[in-house]
Amino acid sequence: MTKKEKASYVIKELLKIYPQPSCTLNYNKPYELLIATILAAQSTDERVNKITAELFKKYPTLESFAEANISELENDIKPVGFYKNKAKSIKETARILVEKYNGTLPTTIEELVKLKGVGRKTANVIMANIYGIPSIIVDTHCKRLSNRLGLVNSKDATKIEFELKKIVEPQLYTIFSNLMVYHGRAVCKAIKPKCEVCTIKDVCEYFKARK
Predict the structure, then answer these.
(1) Which of 21, 59, 118, 202 pairs as cysteine with 64 (C-beta 3.0–4.6 A)?
(2) What's the pTM value of the predicted model, to 2 decimals?
């Protein structure tokens, strides 16, 4: 089985379990997804959603984030970790979006990654979910599962993204990425993965090595 065939098989099998995989961060406005994704670095979507439920009420506009008191904003997002850097990134990014982009989000990866606190993962989240452009989103789950399955052999997120682009059908980039998140949370956990109930273990290099 080639890597392309394996990727196709994995998608087909996982769609039987998770038929409508979608972004698991809550948002109503495009910039809210950007802020939520910045907050999600080294945290969990579940924790971020709890924080943003109140955060987006307190700061109802992009301008309110740009004008936020930095100490207060730090305190508001403290539970997600790395709150000092994240608060700076959110405030500065909000200011740039208001001043340079008239409150809208840039439409290219190249422009998005120029924003403070925005790397390729966050940029791809925006491209996929706001602009509907299929994108490979390499988060911790995608990185772990892609390596365990033997689709890639790297810890570098950018390398993984471009390797996966060679073997996943372009129109399925986002679906593949979301499936990695769903399956990573439910079954292929970082610690104590539930290999015995995994429906794709027959093509998994990690499982074969454990036997």
Answers:
(1) 59
(2) 0.94
**Number of alpha helices (DSSP H) and beta strands (DSSP E) in the chain:** 12, 0
Q: Is 142 annotated as a binding residue?
A: no
Question: For the chain, which residues make up each domain, given as ranges?
Answer: 3-22+136-209, 30-131
Q: Is 23 annotated as a binding residue?
A: no
Ligand-binding annotation for 195, yes or no, is yes
Q: Do the Cβ atoms of 161 and 138 come closer than 8 Å?
A: yes
Domain 30-131 bears CATH identifier 1.10.340.30: yes
Name the CATH code of domain 3-22+136-209 (choices 1.10.1670.10, 3.40.910.10, 1.20.1050.90, 3.10.50.40).
Answer: 1.10.1670.10
Q: How does pLDDT run across 175-184, given as a tens digit for each residue?
A: 999 999 999 9
Give the Cα separation of 96 and 116 in Å (integer). Answer: 9
Active site residues: 121, 139
Query: Could you read off the pLDDT of 63-103 as tens digits, one per residue?
Result: 999 999 999 999 999 999 999 999 999 999 999 999 999 99
**Does 198 appear as a known binding residue?**
yes
Contacts of residue 80, defined as CB under 8 A and 6 or more positions apart, other chains included, come to 39, 40, 43, 47, 48, 51, 86
